Every structure is written in structure tokens, then in C-alpha cells.
Amino acid sequence: MISPFIAPDAIPAGALLVDVRWTTAGSDRDAFVAGHVPGARYVDLEAVLSGEGGPIIGRHPLPTPEAFAAGLGAAGVPDGVVVVAYDDAGSVAASRFVWMLRTVGQEAAVLDGGLASWTGPLESGDPPVVGVTRRVVEWPAGATVEADEVAAAAARGLVVDSRSASRYRGEQTPLDPRPGHVPGARSLPFSDNIGPDGRLAPVADVQARFESVGAGAGTIFYCGSGVTACVNLLAAEQAGRGRGRLYVGSWSGWATDPSRPVART
User: Fold this and answer.
1) Start-to-end CA span in the chain (Å)
2) In terms of CB atoms within 10 Å, which end of the chain has fewer, N or C?
3) Distances (CA, A) of 43 to 15, 86, 129, 208, 230
4) From 223, 229, 230, 248, active-site residue
5) pLDDT score of 239 more than 90
6) Structural class in CATH, domain 144-254
7) Active site residue 230
């Protein structure tokens, strides 16, 4: 399978560029209309890449396989094509999309550096899209985990918190009802994978980060709502640490369950 992060000059012939720009306020389709990579499709994180959120399940649960296939089909993203996704905010939304595609077996990569790394012309407007029919593929068993498995794995040091260090320590809680982290989880902020130029840091540096907390194949990653953890998941794979697993509910699920303990040290 294609590497999780790919440079603009390494995009394979025939690949489909997909714009996944998004903000915490919701869809950023207006930015797509204002200017995007020629021929790119737009995929909305809220509408296509997540289901309806709520307590315990978190803010961005995975959509049903049927909804995912239908949403991508309506956006003109077919089966069988190599997808290269980008955004303009640290590859966060693009990583969620790419992780989802790779999980169901479709070749996909993040455009390293996001839209800013694209040196060609941009086009504006909201071009018409020809919908396609996609196969419905179930989410593979083991790719994601629930809270009980997170609790058991954290006791063995196999859980990584991908949020900022301040949110991990409970100094900030901008979106969730309780501050802190899953007891036993290690802190490894997703943003530290990205260099000042917006591109993935040197692979040796990324590899050392994951080695420092013992993260490898099977390690569980979580974040605020199952989105930014995907940067860590893909970066770990890029650095040769194997495929981890995602706690999709993440802190927005854990913190809304009063039966779950919280640590702040």
C-alpha cells in the first residue's frame, strides 16, 4: 500500500485529490469553493467521515459502513482509485479520512504539507460532481477499540493520548466536561509530528518519538474525538512502527461516562 504521507511530486498518476478542509466550527466548503487543487473533490468531515455524536460514543464516531460508502459515492470518490487527501490545518482532517480509507483497504495518503505544499495553480468554484456507487465495506474488527479495552490496555502502557500536553494534564478542557486523561495513558501530542514547514518531521525523529513511549503495532491511540489521533496513527506507520488502533470515542466519550476514572498527573 502507498505510504501514509506523500510529497506533491510523488503523487501517482491517476490519483484523485480530495479536499477535506474543516474547522472545529464545521465544514469549510467555502474555502474549497474559493480555491482548490484542480479536479479535487470535497469531502465533509462532519457529514461523511463521522456519524452523529453523543455521550459515551464521542463527538465524531465512525459512520456506518453504509453511510460512509454512500457519502463518498455522492462526493464522486470511487472504489479502486488512489486517494491523496489534503487540508490546511496540520493534516488533521485529511489524516482521519486517509486512516478510514486505509482501514477498509483503499490506497490513500495524506498530501504532506497540506494545501500549502501544492505549487501548481488552484481553481475556484464548486464544480458539479458525478456520483458513483461504492461497495459497502465493514469496519475491520480490531482496527478500533471500545472503552473497556482502553482501560485494560492503559494498565499495560499501551495507550497514547494524542492531545496537547496541557489538555493531557487537565490544565485545559475546551470541549469536554471533565479535564485530564485516561489513567495510564502516555502523552504524545499529534502536532509534534509536524515540522514548522507544515510537513511531517524527519522519519528518524518521528520514529524516536514513538519509541520513547513504546508505541508500536497494536498500540491504542486516542485524542479529543477520534480525529487528531489519526495523525499519530499514520505517522507511526510512516515511521515503521506498525499499525495502531483507534479509540474512536476518545476523550469526548470517556469524559462523558461518569463510571470512567480520570487522571491529572
Assistant:
1) 39
2) C
3) 16, 10, 12, 33, 17
4) 223
5) yes
6) alpha beta
7) no
| Strand bridging mode 159-161 / 220-222 | parallel
- In whole angstroms, give the CA distance from residue 265 to residue 263: 6
How far is it, in rounded angstroms, from Cα 10 to Cα 33? 25
Handedness of CA 249, 4, 130, 125 (dihedral sign): positive
From the list 191, 198, 195, the residue with the least C-alpha distance to 224 is 191
Summarised one tens digit per residue, pLDDT across range 139-156 is 999 999 999 999 999 988
The pTM is what? 0.95
Whether the CB-CB separation of 194 and 233 falls below 8 Å is answered with no
Q: Which amino acid is at 147?
A: A
Per-residue pLDDT at 33 exceeds 80: yes
**C-alpha to C-alpha distance for 27 and 47, rounded to whole angstroms:** 8
Is 3.40.250.10 the CATH classification of the domain at 5-117? yes
Q: How is the chain split into domains, by residue range?
A: 5-117, 144-254
